[in-house]
Write a structure and sequence with these properties.
This protein is an alpha+beta fold. The chain has a four-stranded mixed sheet with strand order 2-1-3-4, sandwiched between helices. Strand 3 and strand 4 form a beta hairpin. Helix 2 crosses helix 5. The longest helix has 12 residues. The radius of gyration is 14 Å and the shape is elongated. The chain starts with a strand and ends with a helix. The relative contact order is 0.23.
């Protein structure tokens, strides 16, 4: 299982702790320290489309109009922290964000 996020994100920290408490083998991937590859960005945007971008973030609001009009892949490539977090890959399954439904699915 891979948890994509940033080390300063409280939601990522919460998800990581819950998964570790549940005994899951989790690899934390800090997308600032180790940027996403084009293939990883493509896989995430193929799975989640526009939902992969956090349009409420300060990062997104600072984008130029041109970048705001670009596709999610271009937005994440330009500034990876605009990605909604965490993104969790568990084998072939993908999860976006951390809520009670995701927690229940991954810690059971």
């Amino acid at each position: 299982m891979i948890l994509y996020g940033i080390s300063t994100c409280d939601t990522c920290k919460k998800a990581l702790k819950a998964l570790e408490r549940a005994g899951k083998d989790v690899t934390f991937r800090d997308i600032r320290a180790t940027p996403l590859t084009p293939a990883e960005i493509e896989a995430i945007t193929r799975e989640f489309g526009d939902l992969a971008v956090n349009r409420q973030s300060t990062t997104y609001r600072s984008f130029s109009d041109f970048l705001k009009a670009s596709d999610p892949e271009a937005q994440i490539m330009a500034q990876p922290t605009v990605m909604k977090r965490p993104v969790i890959q568990d084998g072939d399954r993908w999860y976006l964000g951390w809520d009670s439904t995701t927690e229940a699915a991954l810690t059971a």
